[in-house]
Amino acid sequence: MVATLPSDLALVASFALYRLIHRFAEGPNPSLPRLSAVIRATSTLHSSATTILAAYYLYRCRMRWAAAVSPSADGPTMNFTAGDAAYARQESAGAAGLGGRYPDDSKNPLLQSRSTLGNAITAIECGYLLQDTISLLREAGARRHLAQPRSQSTLRSLLQYADKTLLFHHVGIALALLVLHFYVHLDRERGIYIIVQFLLMNSSTPILNLRWWLRTYHPSYRLLGLGADFAFIAAFYLARIWLVGWIIRGYGKSHGYESAWKMYVEGMRLPCQLGTGALWVANSAWWALLVMSVVKRMPADLARAGREMHIKKG
Predict the structure, then answer these.
(1) 3-state secondary structure of 227
(2) Are 227 and 301 in contact (CB under 8 A)?
(3) Tens of pLDDT along 21-54?
């Protein structure tokens, strides 16, 4: 059913479903803690579902391409559809492309393949981000009301109490996916396979929310909290730093490049270099700050955990 779901319906259904979940879970006149908990629970549900959908879509594409082309000693480094076999063999022989400065992607299925399921997955992500942006603003409104109960609610006052990093992250990606949705309408979308690969970054979100839940509702569970910290450090690195290199390396293999760095430096166009480079640097910076904050807090957490265990034994 999902595989034939039009992207318009997927976007609207995603937005409506998550809105209904919020309305049902929040109840009438929800408190700030309840709003925050529902946002994190919905985030965990969505990120888990989209990770599974994305992994299934990517696996299905690879199996279809592998079945369409039989590998041989001098065959392509990555198997494509049957119609692209000749192109793949030519590109695997050398990374010079078809005469230009950059490799020719005019027949590369990594960029040119079309998929109703892939479009639906990106539309589901867009619908969730739009709805969650509304929820984040409502959460900011609840914070503002607690701090300034008589002040007038304006967008500026909401932004003052909002998680700006998360809010602008949502808005930016949602706008980009809306542009992609527009190109789907024009039948001109490209790179769906690679875009869905980037959605695997959602896989680190459940551990982020587990970490928040432990620190918010069970702050006395020091060792569990530390375990969640280190699990998130590992998950963030794999899903948001290593993944970028893995995607570039996979794209590079379709043109005969053996490493992600060589593909990035020699084979990628400047806009792609700037975009992926900025993403990698930003995620690496956030990861470094995360590691430093956990390491800085670890001695105090371990000391408190030791005292609590000593009290329980006594």
Answers:
(1) helix
(2) no
(3) 999 999 888 899 999 999 999 999 999 999 999 9
